[in-house]
Design a protein that fits this description.
This protein is an alpha+beta fold and 284 residues long. It is built from 5 helices and 11 strands, in the order H-E-E-E-E-E-H-H-E-E-H-H-E-E-E-E. It has one domain: paralog of FGE (formylglycine-generating enzyme). Helices cover 21% and strands 16% of the residues.
Length: 284
């Protein structure tokens, strides 16, 4: 009898261990819908925001946040991927205009145009980040690709890449040679001065373009971390505004910091400075 019980106990342990091994999430996941590569961001806690004497008023008070593990795309969504989404979902023209500024149809556009009834990325800009996308457009893409936008907390945690008390995704060194920033967009008739996604080194979690190139929508509404903080210039957008993170080709080193926050109305499509791009996440 003991032999049988021992055998059954060993079998239960073996099945449990096997099940645990099978259910362990992979470190990299490839989305079969849009081809995006996503990396596993481990669960953890971090100090969100800036310390006293640093950053803007809406980055304070610094506070501890715990984040569950999730997947995040290694790069922002590209023009080619967004064009594929439009062709796959066939939105009406009015819906398209509410989601993205197309080349030849709106000012300060992204590099996607409608050619003979199909959407296509401008040659040479297929792998550049899609810009001039509204919050609704980003959400629509995520629904199609069965993903979601990151929360503001998830974005900052992932951007830090496991580093503590550092200004940028790579540390405290200058953004020179590490990000696309400080470039003017002379005319909406020309392409925005974006670079191909992944043109610079990734952070500690394997994420590219977490600083510069294009601002990135998050799912979070723009609110102060705690009531009573000083009001700054972005306050008019706090009513319904959504947070963008990461800075863009235009921004200064100050605006490329991982704790920097900016907000815009969710229905805004075309924007001269921050790009209005996004990247996707996925729950385990």
């Amino acid at each position: 009898m003991r032999t049988v019980l021992s055998f059954l106990l060993a079998l239960v342990v073996l099945v449990t261990l096997s099940g645990s091994a099978i259910s362990a999430p992979p470190n990299v996941w490839h989305n079969p819908i849009d081809g995006a590569t996503m990396v596993l961001i481990p669960a953890g806690a971090f100090m969100m925001g800036s310390a006293d004497g640093q950053g803007d008023s809406d980055e304070k008070p610094r506070h501890e946040v715990t984040v569950r593990s999730f997947y995040m795309a290694t790069v922002p969504v590209t023009n080619a991927q967004f064009a594929t989404f439009l062709n796959a979902t066939h939105p009406k023209p009015a819906a398209v205009k509410s989601m993205v500024a197309l080349r030849g149809q709106m000012v300060r556009p992204t590099e996607i145009r409608l050619v003979k009834g199909r959407y296509e990325a401008t040659p040479g800009y297929q792998d550049h980040p899609v810009i001039a996308v509204s919050y609704a457009g980003a959400q629509a893409y995520c629904r199609w690709s069965k993903t979601r936008l990151p929360s503001e907390e998830e974005w900052e945690y992932a951007a830090r890449g496991g580093l503590t008390d550092k200004m940028y995704p790579w540390g405290n060194e200058s953004p020179d040679g590490r990000a696309n920033f400080g470039r003017a967009w002379s005319s909406g008739k020309k392409p925005a001065p974006t670079t191909r996604v992944g043109s610079f080194k990734p952070n500690g979690y394997g994420l590219y373009d977490m600083a510069g190139n294009t601002g990135q929508w998050t799912s979070s509404a723009y609110v102060y971390y705690l009531p009573g903080n000083a009001v700054d210039l972005r306050a008019p957008f706090s009513n319904g505004g959504r947070v963008l993170r990461g800075g863009s080709w235009y921004d200064s080193p100050f605006e490329l910091r991982t704790s920097y926050r900016v907000a815009y109305p969710p229905d805004l499509v075309s924007n001269f400075f921050n790009g209005l791009g996004f990247r996707c996440c996925r729950d385990l």
